[in-house]
Amino acid sequence: MSERMNELGTKSNNSFSILNGMPSYVGLEQKEAVVLEIFSQLVAELLAVGENNKLSRVSVHLQKSSDNYEKHASYLEQHGFEMFTSSVEYYKELFEENEEEAHFSYFTLEDSILTEQKFKDLWKRVMQGSGNAVSTLSMDEQLQSVKHELGGE
């Protein structure tokens, strides 16, 4: 497993981040533009990682502003990938804002107040009505993937 993941990391050459959601998925997230030849090698390696580890899915997140977006999207569709979401990111500079009093509290899973089940229930409620596409993973699989991405398991 790690040899293929290392190969994927080497081939990405900092143009893509690797989203390691093992044992459910592995994904690539574009950081910089890359030529189609390198992109096709990355996708081939991503598919090999997925097949060798019997993952339920692999994914590629592209930047629409990238020069090669159309070519990369077409390549993915030709190789059996389907568009899952079309995300739009908004931001606001906060340095000009006055700090307001927070109207929320937070807990970690390590706190005795918030059990893992309560966390999953809360997470599920927060996701309802979201503009994001519904996940193909169960709540348990999502939590396991997040733990793995954060280095917890």
How would you describe this structure to a colleague?
The chain is an alpha+beta fold. It contains five helices and three strands. A three-stranded mixed beta sheet has the order 1-2-3.
Top keywords for this entry?
three-stranded mixed sheet; 153 residues; alpha+beta
List the helices and strands and how they pair.
Elements: H1 2-12, E1 16-21, E2 25-30, H2 36-52, E3 57-61, H3 69-78, H4 116-127, H5 139-149
Parallel strand pairs: 2-3
Antiparallel strand pairs: 1-2
Helix pairs in contact: 1-2, 2-3
What low-confidence regions span 5 or more consecutive residues with pLDDT below 50? none
Tally of DSSP helical segments: 5
Looking at the structure, what is the overall shape? globular
SSE-based structural type: alpha+beta
Oligomer: single chain
Number of strands: 3
Strand content: 5-15%
Binned, the helix content reads 25-40%
Question: What distance separates the N and C termini?
Answer: 16 Å
Side by side, the strands of the main sheet go 1-2-3
Question: Largest beta sheet, briefly?
Answer: 3 strands, mixed
What is the averaged pLDDT score?
82
Provide the gyration radius in Å.
18 Å
What is the string of helix and strand elements? HEEHEHHH
Structure, briefly:
With 153 residues, the chain is α+β, with helices and mostly antiparallel strands. It has helices spanning 2-12, 36-52, 69-78, 116-127, 139-149; strands at residues 16-21, 25-30, 57-61. It is 40% helix and 11% strand.
